[in-house]
Structure formats: structure tokens, C-alpha cells
Specification:
single chain, five-stranded antiparallel beta sheet, 412 residues, globular, five-stranded parallel beta sheet
Length: 412
């Protein structure tokens, strides 16, 4: 059997390493072979996803469940199964024995129901009326249960669950929705039920949970089963700073990509990491705010949040929205942003701008002046959605593949 990357099958089963970090062709203890990091969940680990309506104070719908295993809040103890949440404080990002939140900068009590759900913060300068760009909510946990229910508050009718990985392998190319045709009204509580073929230890990771912002309120399993926090997450902690080429546009069903379906997530799979921070805001740039009323949406204001997550690798992707500025202005601002990031994480620069734009010279010069590897991405060749501007989902896959090759050639 080919060697694992710094681990063993026993550690993998314990949740100490994602499957996507295995060498190609590795066979696990249960005879599952991983051909490549973009493989899909095999039948024995693939759940059926359905939604069940549950109010904020309603018990799980799993028969015999001892109750919700709630998220831990800052400053209070983690309650037993079925215990009511006693706090409206912010989410405790590190203190839970049940859940990890990979690269999540912060989450607070839900604006409309602070004691029952937590949601991620808006990216700097964004609001519900300006791009509505929140940091995506990830949740990561281990369980031995055959049925798992995730407690959520619907931000829209019939919401997407998010990008679901089981044992590090994705269920499908885009985000997962209910397979049962359920209709959940916006603002209502519901439980996303994952029904597996059998009971065995599995790792469940969801990015962009519940249409990005989480609105998360715990997990339930049946009597005699457990939920616990994974203990290892890989060595690469990837952050990407960008515009709508990073944050996405359109829907997967229409050929586009939502915020949890863009190239940073594909790149994470290729790099073998589940630690990803997607820090894109549509219509923003190094110089350009996404809206005249939202000056704080320029790139520099997201850097402190990015650095608070201790990234090991940071990619900066400017250009598309800065065409009204000079190459010199673009270079100076990129240098400022790279200096903000510092030299502790490995830095990379690419561009979202059209081939031949004057500011491209400023982007390449800014990267060169700071000794940062620069990928001169051929954006004109990237497949676009109907607007002719934004990448399709296959376009995002292409960007990820090119960036993966480039980072490895640069020594990663």
C-alpha cells in the first residue's frame, strides 16, 4: 500500500487527517481507494440529504435522540445533549469538544435569534445591501452515527446546505441541497438530515454552511452515538483575497458559481487542505470599493481579518475592477497590501483583469518589487457565464488547476 502523507490509516479513521491528503491510489483500512483529491464520496459513505422543519426550541426528529448538541459560546461551558443554549455571546471558535470551524474569523449570535443560532460576520465594508458578502461558515466534526441532523435557520426558502465533504471527499461538484423536495420557508428553523448507509466513523465537513452564513445551532445524533472534534487539519492554511472572480457570480445550476463553489475551494482540494478562507467581495479591488457608499470594501481592509486566521499561504487576486486607475496606483496599493500581509505566510499574486489592461503592468511590478511569485493568468481564456465577465464553474476549476501547478512550481 502506498505510504500516507505523514500519518496512518488509524489516525485517518480517528479524524486526524483528511482523505484528500493521501497519495493517489492509497487503499484505506475499509478497502476504499482514493484515485485523486477531486474524487467523490463512495457509495458506502454517501448520505441522503433531506430537510425537516424544526422550530428554534423543537427537539430533533431523529428517533430516540437525546437532543441537540449545541455549539459552545464564549465564556460559558459546553452544555450536555438536550441542554438549552444559555448564552447569546459570540461563537467560541476553539473551545468546543464537538465542532471545529476551519479558518472562520468570527461568528456572533444571529441578529434575529442570538440565543438559538450563530452566523458569520460580514466581510469588511459589506452589508446586506452592499454585496451581502459574509465570511463563509465552515463546520467540521466526527461522528459514528448513521443519521446526523444539523440545526439551522433558513436564510432563504429551500436553502442549500453547502459544499459537503465526507472523509475529505466531496459529495458532488457544487453545493448540496435536499434530495427530498422539501420546502423550508425563509426565517424558519430546520434540520438538515444526513442519512448514511450504516453506522461507522466518518468526518463531515461543510463549507458555506446554509447559504454561506451558517445560522448554525448544533447537531443531533441518535442515542448511543457521539460527535467529536477532529484533531488535525493539515499544514496548509490558505487565504484568498479578491473580487467576484474569487467570491463568485451566478448559480451552479445556471453554469456559474456561488461563493462556496469558487476556485479557492477547488484549489484547497488540490493542495490537500480543508483550511480555506475565501475573502472575496464582488466589484471591489485594490483601489476600487464595491460601491461608492462602501469605501471599506477595498482589499486592504480585509487583510487584518485574513491575518487573524494565521494563514500559511495568501493569494492576492486584483485587477478586474481597478481599470479606472493607473498602473502606478495599482502597483503602490498592491505593495501596501503585500507589506500588510508580511513575509511569514507564503504570498502569491495573480490577476482577475482582462488581458492587455494597463493596470496589469502595475500588478506584475508590485509583485516583483516584493519578491512575490506572480501568475499572469490568461483570464480571456477562462470560460464565462452569460455576462461575459465572471467564470463558469468549469472556469473556476481551470483557475484552481493553474494556481495549483503554479504554486507547486514556485515551491509551495
Amino acid at each position: 500500500m502506498p505510504a500516507l502523507i505523514g500519518t496512518s490509516p488509524a489516525k485517518l479513521l480517528a479524524g486526524e487527517v483528511p482523505l484528500s491528503r493521501l497519495y493517489a491510489g492509497t487503499t484505506l483500512a475499509w478497502e476504499q481507494t482514493i484515485a485523486d483529491p477531486l474524487a467523490f464520496v463512495p457509495a458506502e459513505d454517501r448520505p441522503v440529504v433531506t430537510y425537516a422543519a424544526v422550530g428554534a426550541s423543537v427537539a430533533p426528529t431523529i428517533a430516540g435522540s437525546p437532543g441537540w448538541l449545541r455549539e459552545k459560546r464564549v465564556g460559558v461551558a459546553e452544555g450536555a445533549a438536550g441542554a438549552a443554549q444559555s448564552s447569546t455571546a459570540a461563537l467560541d471558535l476553539t473551545g468546543s469538544t464537538r465542532f471545529a470551524y476551519p479558518m472562520l474569523p468570527a461568528a456572533v449570535g444571529h441578529a434575529s435569534n442570538a440565543g438559538n443560532y450563530v452566523q458569520s460576520n460580514f466581510k469588511e465594508g459589506s452589508t446586506s445591501s452592499v454585496q451581502n458578502a459574509r465570511y463563509l461558515f465552515p463546520v467540521d466534526f466526527m461522528t459514528d452515527a448513521p443519521v446526523v441532523q444539523i440545526r439551522l435557520r433558513a436564510p432563504s426558502s429551500s436553502p442549500l446546505l453547502g459544499r459537503v465533504l465526507i472523509n475529505g471527499l466531496r459529495m458532488q461538484r457544487g453545493s448540496v441541497a435536499s434530495s427530498g423536495g422539501d420546502t423550508i420557508a425563509a426565517g424558519n428553523g430546520y434540520g438538515a438530515v444526513l442519512t448514511f448507509p450504516d453506522a461507522r466513523t466518518r468526518r463531515i465537513t461543510i463549507y458555506g454552511l446554509n447559504v454561506q452564513d451558517g445560522s448554525f445551532g448544533g447537531v443531533a445524533v441518535g442515542a448511543g452515538y457521539s460527535v467529536w472534534k477532529p484533531t488535525s487539519f493539515g499544514t496548509i492554511r490558505l487565504a484568498v483575497l479578491g473580487d467576484s472572480f474569487t467570491n463568485g457570480a451566478g448559480s451552479f445550476s445556471a453554469g456559474g458559481a456561488r461563493a462556496m463553489e469558487t476556485w479557492p475551494w477547488e484549489l484547497g482540494l488540490l493542495l490537500g487542505t480543508g483550511m480555506i478562507l475565501q475573502a472575496g467581495i464582488g466589484a471591489s479591488g485594490l483601489m476600487a470599493p464595491s460601491d461608492a457608499s462602501a469605501p471599506l470594501t477595498v482589499f486592504r481592509n480585509r487583510v487584518p481579518t485574513i491575518m487573524s486566521t494565521n494563514p500559511t499561504h495568501v493569494i492576492v487576486m486584483p485587477g478586474r475592477n481597478d481599470q479606472n486607475y493607473t498602473a502606478g496606483q495599482e502597483q503602490a496599493e498592491l505593495e501596501y497590501v503585500l507589506d500588510q500581509i508580511g513575509t511569514t505566510p507564503k504570498r502569491y499574486v495573480t490577476r482577475s483583469s482582462i488581458n492587455g489592461q494597463a493596470i496589469n503592468a502595475g500588478i506584475s511590478a508590485g509583485a516583483a518589487s516584493r519578491g512575490v511569485p506572480y501568475l499572469d493568468l490568461d483570464t480571456n481564456a477562462i470560460p464565462k457565464i452569460a455576462d461575459g465577465i465572471h467564470p463558469t464553474y468549469p472556469g473556476h476549476e481551470s483557475i484552481a488547476a493553474q494556481m495549483n501547478t503554479f504554486m507547486r512550481s514556485a515551491g509551495l
